[in-house]
Amino acid sequence: MRKYSEFFDSLDTIPIEKLPDLELYMDQVTKFLDDKLLAYKQEKSDRAITKTMVNNYTKAKMLPVSNKKKYSKEHLLFLILIFHLKSILSIDDISKIIGLLPDSISDFYGSFLKIQEEQISKLKEENEKSNINDKMELIFSLAFEIELKKMMIEYILNQDSEIIN
């Protein structure tokens, strides 16, 4: 098993500068995202984003309609954000979040990258756990933290008057 630090070193962020400037066709979009998000996938054979997902996100108005079947840098930014949310939140909650993003997705994406890098760095600092009890404590600590944070996201989306109105 890889050491924790090695695992976190494999989690690359995708700066805007690394996104293609040209518009891409659907197959190019899914291939690009599969390559760039590989380290985040549980099973390496799983697809990060599929054609069906893109079509469903477009129908749900979570993603702008393509321009003559071509997808821009803006589309890729939305898809990256959706990818990172979809493992913990429902499509309805993700749709609410996407609807609350500022008009300039590229401006917000810079904030997202900063948050992502800070979280990776924070977890990377966790000490290596050598015995099973330490590892189990870490697992339950992380699981409870995730549960609480997910509950907070849902609370903000469903109860916070600034979000609802």
Quick recap of the structure?
This protein is mainly α and 165 residues long. It has helices at 4-9, 26-36, 51-59, 73-86, 91-100, 105-124, 132-159, 161-164, and strands at residues 24-25, 70-71. α4 packs across α6.
Describe this structure in words.
The structure is a single chain. The protein is mainly α and 165 residues long. 62% of the residues lie in helices and 2% in strands. The chain has helices at 4-9, 26-36, 51-59, 73-86, 91-100, 105-124, 132-159, 161-164; strands spanning 24-25, 70-71. A two-stranded antiparallel sheet has the order 1-2. Helix 4 (73-86) crosses helix 6. The mean pLDDT is 85.
Strand order of the largest sheet: 1-2
Structural class: mainly alpha
Instruction: Please tell me what the overall shape is.
Output: globular
> What's the gyration radius in Å?
17 Å
Descriptive terms for the model:
globular, 165 residues, two-stranded antiparallel ribbon
Tell me the layout of helices and strands.
Blueprint: H1 4-9, E1 24-25, H2 26-36, H3 51-59, E2 70-71, H4 73-86, H5 91-100, H6 105-124, H7 132-159, H8 161-164
Antiparallel strand pairs: 1-2
Helix pairs in contact: 4-6
